[in-house]
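Bit of a strange request maybe. I'm writing a small parser for structure token strings and I need a real example to test against, not something I typed by hand. Could someone generate the tokens for this chain?
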Amino acid sequence: MGPFPIAFDVATGDLGFTFDSGAYYVQTNLGGADGRPPADPTIAAYRVNAAAAKVSRQVAAKLYGPHRPYGYLFGGSGGSYQTIGAAENTQGVWDGFVPFVMATPVSRIWHGCGWS
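Reply from user aminoacidic:
Good idea to test on real output. This should exercise your parser:
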């Protein structure tokens, strides 16, 4: 297994579309490579992602010239919680948020003959 805990193409999304759109993509390890939760839960919840987003804008300005790139945070399943938490607890870091496939213990599944 490489540096990604899941398949590389799943972890990175569609990088071709990203680059073709003149964008860049940032992904973090949520502040810990060892799998243990950090002492402060806000670190993995949103603070590492916010710090990475801020630093990425500085790097982009050096590479592409001074400008304000737009930044969006998205996440599905468990990442939907992080996306919503970041939206609620940060200001001026991202230009938008896209939580999807909301992780919820009351989700219901259609089994062809009814909901369960």
